[in-house]
Design brief:
This protein has 192 residues and is an alpha+beta fold. 20% of the residues lie in helices and 56% in strands. β5 and β6 form a beta hairpin.
Length: 192
């Protein structure tokens, strides 16, 4: 083997080795990221234990903000929710009023099966799925979000945490193609 062929072969082997190491590092980072995501079971021991049928029953007031991915608040809003249940089927009738004066209505229909829930709403693509554990509820869905005459499919990863019998906090991250677009922060207060 000539010196030039030997050098080219060694160079190719070195680059193959470096690519393998880079691939392993990337794969490890992805595994660690996936493992690092919270799961509902992480909150199993937290109190008070959240019962969605009990909490989302009656009238609830909420205050929220939407932040873009830089953290800037781009929209504020309030919500009045009228919530009812018939067996394991719940209806959450939500009326939104935004800081710019616009309004919106969303009506969720929820189905309970143990600690798991499914849900539908007019501006939700397909079915939302969720699970309670301890004081927490994780809710995932794809919302049809109108922006300047175009409707986008945006994924929501919604986490709710019951603080006491009246107050619940909610943080939802919004993403498209795995890229975070922003988040919604909400505070719920159940009326007497």
């Amino acid at each position: 083997m000539t010196l030039a062929k030997k050098s080219a072969k060694q160079w190719a082997q070195q680059w193959a080795s470096k690519l393998q190491l880079a691939f392993l590092a990337l794969a490890s980072a992805l595994v660690l990221t996936a493992c690092a995501s919270p799961q509902p079971a992480d909150y199993a021991q937290e109190k008070p234990v959240l019962d969605l049928k009990e909490y989302f029953n009656g009238t609830i007031d909420a205050w929220g903000v939407f932040q873009d991915r830089s953290g800037k608040v781009v929209k504020r809003f309030t919500v009045v929710m009228k919530c009812t249940w018939d067996g394991n089927t719940g209806v959450l009738d939500e009326d939104f009023v935004y800081s710019d004066g616009t309004t919106q209505k969303r009506v969720w229909t929820l189905k309970k099966d143990g600690n798991k829930y499914t849900g539908t709403a007019g501006d939700v693509l397909g079915q939302a799925t969720g699970e309670t554990s301890g004081n927490a509820f994780q809710w995932k869905y794809t919302m049809l979000l109108p922006v300047d005459g175009t409707t986008y499919e945006v994924q929501f990863d919604d986490w709710m945490y019951q603080m006491d019998n009246k107050v619940m906090l909610n943080r939802a991250t919004m993403s498209k193609f795995g890229i975070e677009l922003g988040e919604v922060l909400l505070s719920f207060r159940k009326r007497d």
